[in-house]
Write a structure and sequence with these properties.
- This protein is mainly β and about 1050 residues long.
- The chain contains two helices and 83 strands.
- A hairpin with a 5-residue loop joins strand 10 and strand 11.
- About 0% of the residues have low confidence.
Length: about 1050
C-alpha cells in the first residue's frame, strides 16, 4: 500500500482562527492547523481527493469552516481545531475566485472566474458526508469575460459589492441586490457601476476597502479600490460614487479584450494614486488595518516572493494625482518565487504562504521605519563622533574628532544619554580606533598610546605606548575559571611587522580591575612576514595548559599559533588562502561539545569572498590535526563582517548587501534584520540579539541607529527552494539521512526529515549558475556529486555531526575543469568508487550526445575517454551487469562495454524501448546476474528491459501506464521474495502508482516478467520530476519522496502482495 506521510507544497490558502490561536493553511488537498506560537501541527485534514485548497472562510462563531478549491466547496463542522469534520462536496459552475460571509445572516457569496455570483446559506449545506457531489445554483449568471481576480464584500444583508479584474487589464465594479424566494433559492439583480481599463496587463489582484479605511483620506471617501497587475503597478481608485450606472454586464464584456474600446468602457472612477513596485508580476493586494493613525496603507505581494508596504500620502506636485503611494518597507520572507496566499488578523498581523511551502506571520508594526539620528547636542560645535563600539547592552564608547571620550546609552528613536569620560586627549585627536568586549574597551590613536576603559570602574587608563600609529585593535576574552577572566589584546601599527600582544587578567573575587602581567610574561605572536592581520580570536585549555591564538590576514590566510606561557611559542599551522585572496573579516572559536576545557573545537571564519568556513581543530598524540569541514557561500555579501553564536545555539552572521546591512540566522536560513544604511564603506557597530539587535552607523558625518527588538516576521513552517525541484538523492547512512534536492533556483538543499516536524533544511549549496540536472551520493555518502548546465559539475564533501550548522558541514572539494566553458548540459552521470579511498570513476552524459569518462582523485581530474553516441540528447547513464547503459531522447537504451584491459568505453548495441524521450530510469540486478531496467517514457509508457550478462536485450512495454508523460520510476526490492519487486512510477498527471513485478529468471528474456498495478494515488506535487527511496521510522520503514513543485513522502508497505486493486490489461507489449 501507499500511505501518505507528509508533504511540503505551495501554500495556496490561509486564514486565522482566533479562538484557538491557530493559522489554517491549505497545502495541496490538505487543511492544516498550526499553533501560531510554536508552529506545531494541530490538525491535518484531507478536504478533497485531488483538488488543491484555494480558500478558507471561518464563520464568526468559528464553529464552521468553508473550504474551496477550483470548483469544489466543502463545509467543515466542529467546536475546536481538532474536531472539524467534512461534509458533502458541493460544486460550482466555474473556478471560485473569492467568497464572503454576510454580516447579518449565514449567507455566503461566491464569485467565479466568469464573473458569476453564487449565493447559498451555510445552514442549507449538508453537515453529513454521503460521498456525493452536489451542485450550487448561480444567482447572477456568468458572462463571456475571463477573470483573474475578484473581491466580494457585503454592503448589507441583501446587497453585495463585487470588484472583478480581467485577463485583459479591465476592472469592473458591480453590485447585486439579493432576495430569497419561496423554494429557498436566491435570486439577484445586478447593477454595473464602473467598467474601465485599469492596467496595461492582466489584473491579478483587486481589493475593496472598508468605509473606515476610506475615510482616512477624507470625509468624502466611502470606498476605495486597490488593484495590481503584471505591469508591476499598484493603483488606488475612489469608487465612492456608485450612483451613476454603467452598462449592464453582458453589454460591457469583450470577447477577446483586444481592439477598439467602446465609449461606455471609458466610464472610470478617479485614480487617486499609482506607483510601480516589485521586480515582476504582482499577485495580490490588501488594505492594512494595523494603525489607523498612519492613514491608508496597502500591502502588495509579488511573484518575486516579497511583500511591499505602501502608504497613501497627499501629493502636492502640480499635474499629478491627488495622492502618492510611498514605499514604506519591503519584506522577503519566502524563497524562490511566488506568494500564493495571504490572510489578515484583527491585531494588524498578516500571514503569507509561498510556493516554497513556508508560512510567515508578519508583525506589521515592526516593519522597517526611518532610521533615527543619534543626538549630538553634548558635543562642542564642529566636533563629530568618529569611532565607537558597544561595551554593554545599549551602551557605547565613542571618540570624537577633538579626541574626547564619551559613553552613550542608546534609547528608542535615537534618544541617548551621554557622559564624558575624559576631555580631549591629544593622542586621540583627528584619528582613533576602538575595540571592545563586554564591559571593556580599548582605544588608540596616531600617537601609539593605547587606553583601556573599564565599565566596572568607569576609568580610562593608559596600558601601552607603541610609539607608532595604531592601525588595528583586536580583543578576545574567555573564562579561565568561574572567577578568573582572561583578556587578550592584539595591537598592529604602521610599518611594524610583529604585532604587540598583551594579556590582562581579572580576578572577579578580589577586584574589578584588570591587571597586566609582567612584560616578560607577555606572549609573542610568531606570524609569517607580511601577514597583515584583519581578525583575531583565542582558545584556552587548562589541562594541559595550552593557549592558542588564531589570526586572519588580508590575503585570506589564517595562522594558528601556540602562545602558551610554557615557552613553547610557535606557529602550529598556516592555512593559506582559506578565503581566496580576500580578507578574513572575523574569527570565532567554539569548543567541541561547548566545553571550554575540551582540547578540540571548531574555528569559524568569515571572509570578503562571501563565504563562511569551519575548521575542525583537535590535538591527538601530541599532534595538531586540522581539517576544513565546511565552507559555503552566503546569500549576501561579499562584505561579510561578523558572527556570533546566540544563546539558542543559532549562528548569527552580519554584513552588507548593496546599500543594506543584513543580519542572517544561518541555522534558520532567515534574514532577521535589514537596514538601509548606504552600503559597506562606513563606520558602524552592531550589537546582536536573538530578535535582531542594535545597529549604529555613520552617514554623511551623522550617526544613525536602528534598534530591533522583534523579528519582522516569524516562520511558522520553514520553506524549501520555492522553485521547481529537478533532482533528488537520499543518503543511506544509518546515523543521519540527508535529502539532497536541486532546483531551478540553481541551489542544492540538504534536508533532514522527521515525521512529526517534516523537512528541515540544514544547508544550502549556492555554487551552480544554472538549474540542477542530476544529483548522486557516493556509496559511503561521504561525497555528493552535482551537475547542471554550462558543463557544471561539482564534488561536495559532506561531514555530519557538526554543531551549530544543523549537524552538517559541506565543502566544495573540486570543480570539474570544464565547468562553465560551454553551454552543454550534463543531464546524467554515473559514479563508481574504486578500491582506493577518495578515487572515483565518473561517466558524464552530455546534451550533445557525448559520453565522457573521467577519473577523479581528491581534486585531480584525468580524462579517460570521449565517445559520441548519435545525435540524440543523452538523458541518463548508469552501470549494471558489467555494462554501462545510457538512455536518450530517441527512446533507446544503449549498452557500452568496459573491458578490464581497456581504458575506454565501447558502444556495443542499442535497443528501442519508447517512442521518444526516456525521462527516468531505475534498475535492479537479479540473482542470475542479469538486470531489469525500468524506464519512464515521454510516451506515457513504462518500459521493462531485461539485460543478460552476455549482453542480450529483451523488453516489454506498459503503454498508457499514466495519462501523461511518465517522469520518474523507482524500484523497491522485496525483503521476503527475491523474485518480486515493487515498482513506483510518477507522472505529470499528478498520480503515483505502485506496481508489483514478479520475475521467473528461468524463463528467457522477459517471458517470465509479470506486472500488476496495486495502488493509484493522487499527489499534491505538480509536474513530478523525480522519485527517490528513503528510510522511515517504524516496522515498515521504507518510503519514497516525490519532488518537483514541492516534496511529498509516502510510506510503502502493508499487505503488498495480498491486495491488488487492479491488474494491468493484456496491452503489455513484449519485444
Amino acid at each position: 500500500m501507499l500511505e501518505h506521510v507528509h508533504h511540503r507544497v505551495p501554500v495556496t490558502a490561509l486564514s486565522f482562527h482566533r479562538r484557538d490561536h491557530v493559522i489554517l493553511a491549505g497545502h495541496g488537498n490538505l487543511l492544516r492547523g498550526y499553533d501560531i506560537d510554536t508552529g506545531q501541527i494541530l490538525t491535518n485534514l484531507k478536504v478533497f481527493d485531488d483538488q488543491a485548497v484555494h480558500g478558507i472562510l471561518v464563520t464568526p462563531d468559528e464553529d464552521v469552516l468553508l473550504v474551496w478549491g477550483g470548483r469544489l466547496v466543502r463545509k467543515l463542522n466542529g467546536h475546536s481545531i481538532s474536531t472539524y469534520r467534512p461534509s458533502n462536496v458541493y460544486e460550482a459552475r466555474d473556478w471560485i475566485l473569492d467568497a464572503a460571509l454576510s454580516p447579518e445572516d449565514d449567507c455566503i457569496a461566491f464569485v467565479d472566474a466568469h464573473n458569476a455570483l453564487t449565493i447559498c446559506n451555510i445552514r442549507d449545506l449538508s453537515a453529513e458526508d454521503d460521498g456525493s457531489t452536489k451542485p450550487l445554483a448561480t444567482a447572477v449568471p456568468s458572462s463571456n469575460c475571463i477573470l483573474y481576480s475578484a473581491h466580494v464584500t457585503w454592503l448589507s444583508g441583501s446587497q453585495c459589492l463585487i470588484a472583478s479584474g480581467t485577463a485583459f487589464g479591465d476592472v469592473m465594479l458591480w453590485s447585486a441586490s439579493i432576495s430569497r424566494i419561496a423554494d429557498g433559492s436566491f435570486t439577484a439583480v445586478a447593477q454595473t457601476h464602473y467598467t474601465f481599463s485599469a492596467h496595461e496587463g492582466s489584473v491579478f489582484g483587486v481589493q475593496l476597502s472598508s468605509k473606515q479605511q476610506a475615510r482616512r483620506l477624507g470625509d468624502g471617501c466611502d470606498c476605495l479600490l486597490a488593484s495590481c497587475s503584471d505591469d508591476r503597478q499598484v493603483k488606488v481608485w475612489d469608487v465612492s460614487d456608485r450612483f451613476t450606472n454603467s452598462h449592464s454586464l453582458p453589454q460591457i464584456q469583450r470577447d477577446t479584450g483586444f481592439g477598439s474600446k467602446p465609449e461606455a468602457e471609458e466610464h472610470a472612477p478617479p485614480c487617486l494614486a499609482a506607483a510601480m513596485g516589485h521586480v515582476s508580476r504582482i499577485w495580490k493586494i490588501r488594505f492594512c488595518d494595523h494603525d489607523a493613525q498612519k492613514g491608508v496603507e496597502i500591502m502588495s505581494f509579488g511573484e518575486d516572493a516579497s511583500n511591499i508596504l505602501w502608504s497613501v500620502k497627499p501629493d502636492s506636485e502640480p499635474g499629478n494625482q491627488p495622492f502618492a503611494l510611498k514605499q514604506v518597507g519591503v519584506q522577503n520572507a519566502h524563497a524562490g518565487k511566488q506568494i500564493w496566499s495571504v490572510a489578515a488578523a484583527e491585531d494588524g498581523c498578516f500571514a503569507t504562504g509561498g510556493a516554497d511551502g513556508a508560512i510567515a506571520i508578519h508583525h506589521a508594526p515592526n516593519l522597517p521605519a526611518e532610521p533615527s539620528e543619534i543626538d549630538r547636542k553634548m558635543l562642542e560645535p564642529g566636533d563629530n563622533i568618529r569611532y565607537y563600539a558597544f561595551f554593554n547592552q545599549g551602551a557605547m564608547l565613542a571618540t570624537t574628532d577633538s579626541g574626547s571620550v564619551w559613553t552613550l546609552q542608546l534609547g528608542a528613536a535615537g534618544t541617548s544619554s551621554a557622559r564624558e569620560v575624559l576631555p580631549a586627549l591629544p593622542a586621540l585627536r583627528g584619528y582613533s580606533v576602538v575595540a571592545s568586549i563586554s564591559r571593556l574597551a580599548f582605544l588608540a590613536g596616531s600617537a601609539g598610546i593605547v587606553y583601556m576603559y573599564n565599565a566596572n570602574t568607569n576609568k580610562l587608563t593608559s596600558v601601552a605606548d607603541c610609539g607608532k600609529k595604531v592601525t588595528g585593535l583586536f580583543v578576545s576574552s574567555h573564562e579561565k575559571s568561574h572567577s578568573v577572566r582572561l583578556v587578550d589584546l592584539l595591537i598592529t601599527t604602521v610599518g611594524q611587522s610583529d604585532p604587540c600582544y598583551m594579556r590582562f587578567v581579572r580576578d572577579a573575587i578580589s577586584t574589578a580591575e584588570y591587571v597586566s602581567p609582567r612584560e616578560d610574561h607577555q606572549p609573542s605572536l610568531p606570524i609569517p612576514e607580511g601577514f597583515s592581520i584583519t581578525s583575531f580570536t583565542t582558545m584556552e585549555h587548562a589541562q594541559p595548559c595550552i593557549h592558542l591564538t588564531l589570526v586572519g590576514a588580508r590575503n585570506g590566510s589564517i595562522a594558528i599559533c601556540n602562545t602558551s606561557s610554557d615557552g613553547h611559542d610557535g606557529l602550529i599551522k598556516l592555512l593559506p588562502n582559506v578565503h581566496g585572496k580576500e580578507a578574513v573579516t572575523a574569527l570565532l572559536w567554539r569548543s567541541h561539545g561547548n566545553k571550554p576545557t575540551t582540547l578540540s573545537g571548531y574555528l569559524h571564519s568569515l571572509g570578503k569572498d562571501g563565504t563562511h568556513a569551519v575548521h575542525n581543530i583537535r590535538r591527538h598524540d601530541q599532534k595538531w590535526e586540522i581539517e576544513l569541514i565546511h565552507q559555503l557561500g552566503l546569500p549576501f555579501g561579499p562584505n561579510i563582517e561578523g558572527l556570533t553564536i546566540l544563546p539558542n545555539d543559532h549562528l548569527l552572521i552580519w554584513g552588507f548587501r548593496g546599500k543594506a546591512f543584513i543580519v542572517y540566522d544561518a541555522d534558520a536560513e532567515q534574514e532577521t534584520m535589514t537596514v538601509a544604511c548606504g552600503g559597506a564603506h562606513r563606520n558602524f557597530a552592531f550589537q546582536p540579539s536573538v530578535e535582531g539587535g542594535t545597529f549604529v552607523w555613520t552617514k554623511a558625518s551623522k550617526i544613525y541607529q536602528h534598534m530591533q527588538t522583534r523579528r519582522p516576521y516569524t516562520l511558522i513552517t520553514p520553506g524549501d527552494h520555492g522553485r521547481e525541484i529537478k533532482a533528488v538523492s537520499v543518503s543511506s547512512t544509518e546515523d543521519m539521512q540527508i535529502f539532497a534536492t536541486g532546483a531551478e533556483d540553481t541551489n542544492i538543499k540538504l534536508s533532514t526529515f522527521d515525521e512529526k516536524d517534516g523537512f528541515r533544511c540544514v544547508q544550502t549549496l549556492r555554487r551552480h549558475n544554472t538549474g540542477i540536472q542530476h544529483l548522486c551520493w557516493s556509496s559511503a555518502c561521504r561525497y555528493l556529486f552535482s551537475s547542471g548546465g554550462f558543463e557544471e559539475f561539482y564534488v561536495w564533501r559532506v561531514t555530519t555531526g557538526v554543531p551549530v550548522l544543523g549537524g552538517v558541514g559541506v565543502v566544495c572539494e573540486s570543480v570539474h575543469p570544464n565547468s562553465g566553458k560551454s553551454d552543454l548540459r550534463i543531464l546524467g552521470f554515473d559514479i563508481s568508487e574504486t578500491r582506493q579511498k577518495g578515487v572515483f570513476d565518473i561517466v558524464l552524459a552530455y546534451s550533445d550526445s557525448t559520453l565522457k569518462q573521467w577519473s577523479y582523485d581528491i581534486g585531480t581530474w584525468s580524462l579517460v575517454s570521449t565517445i559520441d553516441y548519435l545525435t540524440a540528447c543523452l538523458t541518463e547513464v548508469f552501470h549494471t551487469s558489467g555494462h554501462v547503459i545510457t538512455t536518450a531522447t530517441d527512446g533507446h537504451l544503449a549498452l557500452w562495454d568496459t573491458e578490464a584491459s581497456a581504458s575506454s568505453l565501447t558502444w556495443r548495441t542499442r535497443h528501442r524501448t519508447h517512442q521518444n524521450a526516456i525521462l527516468g530510469v531505475a534498475f535492479r540486478e537479479l540473482h542470475d546476474r542479469s538486470s531489469l531496467v525500468f524506464t519512464a517514457g515521454d510516451d506515457n509508457a513504462i518500459g521493462i528491459t531485461r539485460i543478460e550478462q552476455c549482453g542480450a536485450v529483451r523488453a516489454l512495454l506498459i503503454p498508457r501506464a499514466h495519462t501523461a508523460a511518465v517522469t520518474a520510476v523507482a524500484v523497491v526490492p522485496s525483503d521476503t521474495d527475491r523474485n518480486t519487486l515493487l515498482l513506483l512510477s510518477a507522472s505529470i498527471d499528478q498520480r503515483v502508482k505502485l506496481w508489483t513485478v514478479s520475475i521467473d529468471v528461468t524463463e528467457p528474456g522477459v517471458d517470465g516478467v509479470h506486472v500488476k498495478l496495486q495502488r493509484n494515488v493522487a499527489t499534491s506535487v505538480a509536474d513530478v520530476s523525480s522519485l527517490a527511496l528513503c528510510r522511515l521510522a517504524g516496522d515498515e520503514g521504507v518510503g519514497c519522496v516525490v519532488c518537483r513543485v514541492g516534496m511529498e513522502i509516502w510510506r510503502i508497505g502493508g499487505g503488498i502482495r495480498d491486495t491488488y486493486l487492479s491488474r494491468v490489461s493484456d496491452e503489455v507489449i513484449r519485444e
